[in-house]
Structure formats: C-alpha cells, structure tokens
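INPUT
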Amino acid sequence: MNKKRILIIDDDVPLTLSMKINLEDIGDYEVRVENSSLKAVAAAREFRPDLILLDIVMPDLDGGDVSAQMKSDPMLADVPILMVTALVSNSETGSDDVVSSGDQLMVAKPIKFDKLVHAIESRLAGEL
Amino acid sequence: MSSLHEESLLRSRGDEGSPRKGLRILCIEDNEGDFVLVREHLRDAGFEVAPEVARAASLKEAITLLRDEGKRGSGFDVILLDLSLPDSHGPETLDHVNQAAKDVPVIILSGNEDRDLAVNMVHRGAQDYLPKHFLSGDLLLRSILYALERQRSRLEMSALNGRLTQTTHDLKTAQMQLIQAEKLDSLGRLAAGVAHEVKNPLATLQMGVDYFSRHVEDIGDSGQMMVEHMQEAITNADRIIRGMVDYSRSDSLKLELRNINVIVRKALRMVRHEVIRNNVKVDRHLATPIPAVRVDEGKVEQVLINLMVNAIQAMGSAGRGNGERPLHIETFWGQLEAIDRDLGLRDYDRLRVQDHAVVVEIRDQGPGIPEDKLTRVFEPFFTTKPTGEGTGLGMSVAKNIIDLHRGHIQISNVENPRGLRVRIFLKAYELTDRMKRLTPSSALPSSET
Ligand SMILES: Nc1ncnc2c1ncn2[C@@H]1O[C@H](COP(=O)(O)OP(=O)(O)O)[C@@H](O)[C@H]1O
Ligand SMILES: [Mg+2]
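OUTPUT
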C-alpha cells in the first residue's frame, strides 16, 4: 500500500522530531520535517506531500503567510493543509481538539496522537 | 449711571429678537392702587417698545399664571413682586416665586424701606429691592434692564459651566476607552506568548507519552504507570493555559459576524447633531451586497463615531464658505495586494496579502494633516484642537480597537478635492460565490500610509 506523504512545517525541533517518529511508527505515513518557514515552499515542491501540517506561530513567515504562498503556487495550491495552533482556549475546542477560527479549521497543540491521526485522515478524505 | 449704557442695553435687547417685542412683565401685587401706579410708571419709563404688563393678585394666582405660561413656552421676562400678599408674607413669598419661575429675574417692590430685609432678599436671589414710595419710571427702567443683563450673564455662565462639565465627562470616557483597549491588548499578547512558549514543550511531551503508550511491552508495568501520570500532568497543564487564554478573552471583544453597513448607519445616527450643527452634507455609498465582518459591534461603532466627528470638525474649522461640505462615507471590499505588517501581531486572524477585506472609508474636505504629523495623531493626547474641544484620544482609541480586531487603519491626505481620507480594513467573512465574482478586479493596496 502506498504510504501517505506528510510534510510538517514547524520551527520547534523536538516537537517535529517526535511527531515524525510517531507518524512513521504506525507505518502509514512517510514524513518530512521542515523547521524553517522560509524553506517551506521549496520543501513542499520537492517532497510533493499529500498533506501539510503547518504551525501558525513561527519566526520569519508565520503559518498564514506560508499558507498564502502555497495557495498561489499552482503546484501546491491543492495540497490540503492542517493548521496547528497553540492559542486555543477551553471554550473553543470540541472533544476532537479541532478548532474553527473564522473560516479556518485548526488542530490544537498539544494534541493526542490518535486525535492527530484522525484529523489527518479526515482532512485527506476531504471531510475537514 | 450713564444713559449711554442704558441705551446700549436697550439696543442690544432690540437686536436679539428680530421682530421687536415688548417685555412681558408680571406684577404680583394685591393692592389695586399700587398696581395701577406701577403700570403707569412702566408706561412712562421710556422702553423702546411698551412692555406688556400682567397682574396676579395673590401668590396662588401668580403660580398658576407662571405655570401656564411656562407650559406654553412664552414665559415672562421679569417679575415685580410685592412681598405681602393675602396668601403669603415675607421672604418665603420670594422662594415660592423663584421655584415657580426658575430663570425669570425677580425685583421686589416693598412698602417699607427695611435694609436688612433688602439684603436678605438679594441673598435669596432677588435682583433688586425697590421701596414703593421711591418708585419712578427711570428707576424701574434701570432696575429692569440691569436685572435682565445680569440674568443673561448668569445663563451664559451656566451654559459655559454645562459645556465644561460635558467636556470633562467626554475626556474621562475617552480615557477609559483607551485604558480598556490597551489593557485588553497587552493581556491578549501575554496570554498568546505564554500559550506558545508552554504548549510547544507540552506537545512534545504528548508525542512521547503517546509513543510509549503504544509500546507498553517495552516499558513494563511501572513504566506504563508513569506514562499515565505524565499524561495527566500534560492534560492539567494544558487546561490551565487554555483557561488563561479564556480569561484574557473573557472581557475582551464580543466578536460576531456583522454587516458593516448597519454599523455605519448606526454611527451616522449618533453624529447627526454634529452633522446638522456644522452644516455638513453626508455623502453615503454603502456597497451591497457586502461580506460580513467579525467584530465587536459597539467598539467598531465607537471607532466610526470618532473618525466621523474628526472629519466633521475638520470641515467646520476650515471655514469654506457657507455651502454644505460633504462628509464622504463609503464601504467596499476587495482582495488585498499589499499590507503593512505589525510584527507584534502574529495571530492567525490578522489580515494578510490575498485576503478579502471589507473597507470603510471616511473622507472629508478639511485641511488634512501635515505629513510630519501623520503618525503622531495616533498618540494618546495628541491634539491640535483648543482645550475643551479636543481630547486627543479619538484616533488612538480607534487604532487600538482596530488592532484588537486584527484589522488595519490607514490615513492619507488626498487631493481633488483636498482633505483627509481614513480607511479601515477588516477581514471579510462569509463571501458568497456571487460576491467572489463581484470582487473588484483592481486589488486593494493598503500599505502606503
Ligand atoms: N479628519 C481630520 N482632518 C484633519 N485633522 C485631523 C482629522 N482627524 C484627526 N485630525 C488631527 O488629529 C488630531 C488627533 O485627533 P483625535 O485623536 O481624534 O483627538 P481630538 O480630535 O480630540 O483632537 C486632531 O487634533 C487633529 O489635529
Ligand atoms: Mg477626535
């Protein structure tokens, strides 16, 4: 079976590493990490991910800027993006740790691994 | 007393009401003979237009008359009062009359020449105290004219005082708004900072816990127990930080999806008095349909009021003839092609290039702002208006509130016609497909300030 390719863009090195280990550990995913927001687009063009996990608060470009760059790149415009945000409150999240802010869906940080996988699969299936 | 002064008083009264009217005088006097005498003196006194004299023979009659006149809005200009009436005697008579006719000057006509009583009466608010046996046309004329003049000054003073109180109140309100907005802003930033710094490590720990939970066979029973405790610790810490974010937002903006045009109309209603007073014509172009904005309606209304008042005041002081000056209010929307970046604000919700934005534009035909002052107007207490008129807080409150909304405010001097243009950019929500098709092809530049 073809493994899904996940690109994680987040400046936090220990976090991206532990996410990568977990995602690869269950055998369904091939993961690449990019810790620099400035190299995000280049990494995506090269890796051709099926889905991008994108942190919002990063130095240089933030998640919103990176997302806008991807959207305006014909090669990447259709790649689904899951935003990851630390800035959530108790009142915002449902039991699935998915937040909707305005017209954008985001997953909360920290998120339990099974919920993360569920969010990824839903997004890949076009449900989120 | 120079008669010249009296003449000028006479003239100044004549100038005020353009159809010259005689004074309306109420004489409260029970003695028929005394009343006739007073009326004759008044006739001979040399008023430019003969006064109209009414009579009340008792306090009760006087109060009824005053109340009725008050209701009809006509009212008396002066009251001549005899203190000894069948139904009231002495100083209280004056108190009753003063109560029934608050702003009408009262002159006491008295049968005896009691100095102490005279002083007492003046303290209680009488304008003058005239012994009846001294009465003459001249004396009455002078006494009445000075009473009227003093009354006018008193009313002016109290109007001034009212304005001062109002200004002080306005200043306090504006200050509160500013403090409120700044407090919200810094609390929000603090919560965001802490959330970011603490939650990244928590997320890493969470990934570790999840990894070990899947490999219990490698870590043994004690290891599994420890993983469970770690999970609890992460969940607790996460809940505390979320609570903090909740708190920082609790008394902050009440964001709801709104139609900006509705808020613009509300704000216009709030400034309608200023509009009329300054002879301004409102030139309104509100785009429909228009995407929603996510705002605290009351706060955004406050911003619009501040900006509209500034625009109106700018045109008021420009003194451009007597024609109606247009206050131009417009709403529109489009896609942003450039935007100033505030590096302090790194939230997801802020405006970005390519975003659809709703814009409110307020344009006046006043003198504009000198280029070197353009950024200073956002400083608290920066004002070029005279004390009592400007608080210097309107623009800084506006900027604070728009910042809290993650929007953008832009001011520029424009030409043809010359004036100041203020634009507020707010992120657009709920764009329908029809709106997307309608989106103006020329994108919005918002970075030149
Ligand atoms: N529409 C305008 N036209 C010209 N000058 C303006 C305009 N709006 C604001 N200003 C300038 O900015 C200053 C600060 O405005 P503001 O913060 O609202 O305080 P205030 O209106 O109380 O002075 C004003 O005193 C004025 O000099
Ligand atoms: Mg102002």
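end of record. The longest strand of chain B covers residues 325-339.
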